[in-house]
Amino acid sequence: MIVFLDFDGVMHEIACTSKDLFLHASRFSEVLRDHPGIEVVVSSDWRKDAGSVAELAVHFDLDVRHRFIGVTGIEGKEPRQRERECWQWLRAHGREHVRWIAVDDCPDNFGPDLPGAGAALFTDPSAGLDVEAVAILRAMIAAPAPATQFCYDRANLSGWALWGDGPAIF
Question: Which are the contacts of 75, defined by CB distance < 8 A and separation ≥ 6?
C-alpha cells in the first residue's frame, strides 16, 4: 500500500507556529510501525522546496524514514491536481494496481471517483492527523477496499463543487 502524504493541515494545523510543525509526525510514524507494508510518497507542497525525499523524511521517527520512497511531480493548480499527481506517480512506477490512500486536508485536490485502488482521508485542517483521524486511517488500512473518509463535519463544508450535493461519504 502507498500513502500519499500532505503535511500542512495533516502533520500539523494549517496555521500553526513553527514550534508546532510536524506535531503529528510521531503519531503517523506509529501507524507505519504497525503496518510494515506501507510506503509513503510525499504529495505536500513542501516537496517543492526540498532537495530530496530524505530531507522531507527527517521530520519523522528515524526507524520509519526508509519507508518514504518518493515525491509526486508538480503539475499545476487545477481542481483534482493532487489526484492527478498521485496517479501519475503510480503509473510512472508501474504501481497502478497497488492500493493507495491519500491523506490530505483539501477535498478540492481529489474527486469522489479516484482512479485505481485509491481512497482519500481528509483531515480537518485546524486539527490535522489527530486521534480521530488516526483511527479512521487505521480502519481504512485494514479495510479490503477502503472508501474515502472525512474526519470532520462534511455537512458544514462549502465551496467544494467537485463533491456536489450527492450522498455523504463517511
Answer: 81, 84, 85, 88
Residue 170 is which amino acid? F
Alpha-carbon span 22 to 10, nearest angstrom: 9
d(CA 19, CA 88): 34
| Other residues' Cβ atoms within 10 Å of the Cβ of residue 124 | 19
User: What pLDDT was estimated at residue 168?
Assistant: 39
Dist. CA 134–CA 136, nearest whole Å: 5
Instruction: Say which amino acid occupies 165.
Output: D
Contact criterion met (CB below 8 Å) for 88 and 118: no
Tens digits of residue pLDDT in 60-79: 999 999 999 999 987 777 77
Strand order across the beta sheet in which 2-5 lies:
68-71, 39-42, 2-5, 99-104, 117-122, 149-150
Copy the grid coordinates of residue 115.
482512479
Contact 9, 125 (CB under 8 A): yes
- pLDDT tens digits for 28-49? 999 999 999 999 999 998 788 8
Contacts of range 86-95, beta carbons closer than 8 Å, 24 or more positions apart? 86/4, 86/41, 86/43, 86/118, 87/115, 87/116, 87/118, 89/4, 89/41, 90/2, 90/116, 95/2
